[in-house]
Amino acid sequence: MKRKTYLLTLVLFLLFFNGSILLITIVNLNTSLNNTRSSCLREHDFITAALAKDLNALERRGSAAESALSSLFGSYVSYYGKQNVYLALAQNSQTLYSSLPPEQKLTKTPQIPPVGQRIISTVASPDRKYISISGALPIPYDTYVFSYYYDLSEHTDSWKQMTSLLFLIGIAVSSLLAVCLILLLSRIFKPLRQISEASQSIASGDYANRLPVTGDDELAEMAGSFNNMADAIENQIAQLAEAAAQKQRFIDNFAHELRTPLTSIYGYAEYIQKAAITEADKLEATGYIMSESHRLQNIAYRLLDLAYLRSGDIIFAPVVMEELLQSVSETMYAKAEEKQITLAYESGFKLLDGDRDLLQSLLVNLTDNAIKACISGGKVNLKSFMQDGNKVIEVRDNGRGMTDEQISHVTEAFYRVDKARSRAEGGVGLGLSICELIVACHGAQLSFVSQLGEGTITTITFYNSLTSR
Amino acid sequence: MAEILIVEDEIPINTLIRKNLELVGHKCSSVYDGQAAVEIIEQHDYDLILLDVMLPGLDGFEVFEKIRGVPTIFLTAKSSLSDRVKGLTMGADDYLTKPFEMLELLARVDAVLRRTKKEAKFFAIDNVTIHFDSRQIFWDGAVIDCTPKEFDLLEALVVNRNIALSREKLLNLAWGYDYEGDSRTVDVHIQKLRKKLGLEERIITVYKLGYRLEV
Fold first, then answer.
1. Which residues of B are less than 8 Å from A274 in CB distance?
2. C-alpha pair distances (Å), A232 with each of A199, A211, A212, A216, A240
3. In what order do the strands lie in the sheet with B165-166?
4. Which among A264, A274, A276 has the least Cβ separation from residue B12?
């Protein structure tokens, strides 16, 4: 593109530049030729008139015109010979006198003009050019034809000189132009080159590369939109990388979660098969095999729940809040009782749009976590109320609490705040991942506020616009 | 034989390791987190520690930093190369990735103990005493003639005592992996050992599996 523009511009310029030089010199030459021609005419006029007068004067004095003519003509010739002018006189097509050098034989003899008229023409000898003007002398000497030759050699020489000078200047200017043009074009095309380089570096994975935006022309605008595009790409790549990292963490954790029970199951089976063991040992080993198999089963069910929720098809129906909370606290009653934890609920609004079973599962999960966080004698409160026109459900406990770091990971699959205790109580580390999905299915938001040693408040906020469909 | 501490937070796996090690006569203690491990090591001397890398509280590497000097085998749940390399560069004696097989666990424990334990290496059963260093077998103090293969076979049975070993496994352990013999070779050698050492009641034939030395 740059090359093409460069060549085209250069060729066009050279064409026009040299063309105008040519045109100007031609016009110049023509004007000067015309000037010369008219001055020649004047001279011819003057000489003819003078010659006629002189002849007349000679005749009146009584001398023979013919014999005097030679000396008379000679004086004119010697005068005009200094000005590159040659003269000739002819009578009845016979040349009487001529100052043209004999070696300058004319290629074309001038015609005999009719009486009272003059012929202007350009004649040439082998190496010179002349403007020739011939005309008869006034009556009574009209048998004489006087010719006036103006030598154009100097003229053409100076014209040739000027032309070649102009072309020399032309070549110098053209080279200068070629250099300037290349610099100018590189400057103009620089943004394009930068864009191409930047897109190549982006394509090869350096997503942070940006173009400098200067001025406010079209190129700056283009650089601006290019940068926007690069921003968008960078963001999407970052999101993809984050999603991939999360998936990788999920797979790593999942592999670990599977491997741990499998190690036990395989190990105890091998132990029963190969070792010399007592009946009590065998019972213990089979017990472990069964409980670890159960754990695997739990993981499988939980993963199925997750998959089902991800597919996202849930049916909304009005759920009676009072009844939902009651049902949840009845489900958890035995567990709370066992740890001597007080479980209470309080409903602040009547109906909530949602999937009853999923909401129940959500609240049971959260209550279960709350109970696990409490020591014996703790309190767990379920409460629903209106806040800023939005429906809110809150699960509050006065248990161990979490750090901010723990809260940021708490909904990640297989993350456990307290690994040892969670396993001991049969958790698989997927509860809150499922809760988060249920909440997301309802277009609501799940948030945690916690203080180490003081307890945790889990809040589910159902935003009006999304729940009142 | 040796006193071994097992540091592993998964109770079933901890118990499994302990039961396997007790089969071959080791004395084991179990702890379930890093802090407890550090405390118990300060109070008691162990010949070997089996240390899980992923522990609640202090992780395995941090525990290892604090207990320098005790022979250690790392248990890495992740078969991640970086964990294994890190453990070894820190100076651990070996590592074991989960899931592991019983025989692998015992072989690695045995190898580390042989390297690190300074007491005499011998094993006694009934009237028979086996000296591993000099590769000699005594019957009531008198040297018994036996071929190198017979000794290797007996050693494999003793190291993995109370555990049934298949004929193929015994071939691998005593003859090496490149031995292309018949598994009946094992039967013949077992018969010879039983007769020579009077271990008919000790070397048990396990139905469909192989042989087991019961102690």
1. 102, 163-165, 206, 209, 212
2. 14, 14, 17, 22, 12
3. B165-166, B210-213, B203-206
4. A264
Chain A residues in contact with B16 by the CB 8 A cut-off are: 263-264, 267-268, 271, 288
Q: Which two tokens stand for residue A445?
A: 């938001």
Cβ–Cβ gap A260/B10 under 8 Å: yes
Q: Looking at beta carbons, which residues of chain A come within 8 Å of B77? A: 256, 259-260
**HSE-up of A379 (CA within 13 Å, CB side)?**
9
- pLDDT at position A466 is 47
Question: Crossing angle for the helix pair B184-197 and B167-175, nearest 10 degrees?
Answer: 80
Domain B122-213 fold: Arc Repressor Mutant, subunit A (1.10.10)
Residue A465: pLDDT over 60 = no
> Contact, B77 vs B51, CB < 8 A?
no
pLDDT at A467 (0 to 100)? 43
Looking at beta carbons, which residues of chain A come within 8 Å of B102?
Answer: 267, 270-271, 274
Distance CA B89, CA B61 (A): 11
Please indicate whether, in this complex, the C-beta atoms of B12 and A291 are within 8 angstroms of each other: yes
Rounded CA Rg of chain A: 58
Query: Does B36 touch chain A if contact means CB atoms closer than 8 Å?
Result: no
Chain B: closest CA distance from residue A451 (Å): 20
Answer for the pair B74, B95: CB distance below 8 angstroms, yes or no.
Answer: yes
Residue A99 near residue A86 (C-beta atoms within 8 A):
yes
Indicate the CATH number of B3-116 among 3.40.50.2300, 3.40.50.150, 3.40.50.300, 3.40.109.10.
Answer: 3.40.50.2300
Domains of chain A with bracketed CATH? 2-161 (3.30.450.20), 226-311 (1.10.287.130), 314-467 (3.30.565.10)
Cβ neighbours of B209 in A, within 8 Å: 273-274
The dihedral sign for the CA sequence B20, B25, B30, B35? negative
pLDDT digits (tens, 9 = 90+) for B25-68: 899 999 998 889 999 998 988 999 999 888 877 888 889 988 87
Place of tokens 């023979």: A64
To the nearest whole Å, the CA of B161 is away from the closest chain A CA by 9
What is the sign, positive or negative, of the torsion defined by CA atoms of B25, B29, B30, B35? Answer: negative
Chain B residues 75-134 with a CB less than 8 Å from chain A: 77-78, 98-102
In this complex, do A271 and B10 lie within 8 Å of one another by their Cβ atoms? no
Looking at the predicted structure, is the pLDDT value of residue A147 above 70?
yes
B59 in contact with chain A, both atoms CB, cutoff 8 A: no
pLDDT at B80: 67
Question: What confidence tens digit (pLDDT) does each residue in B150-206 have?
Answer: 899 998 898 888 889 998 888 888 888 777 778 788 899 999 999 888 888 889 998
Query: What percentage of chain B carries pLDDT values higher than 90?
Result: 20
Q: Which residues of B touch A285 (CB under 8 A)?
A: 19
Q: Is the pLDDT of residue B120 over 60?
A: no
Say how far apart CA B36 and CA B5 lie, in whole Å.
11
Helix H or strand E segment including B115:
helix B102-116
Torsion of CA B14, B16, B18, B24, to 10 degrees: -160
Question: Domain boundaries in chain B?
Answer: 3-116, 122-213
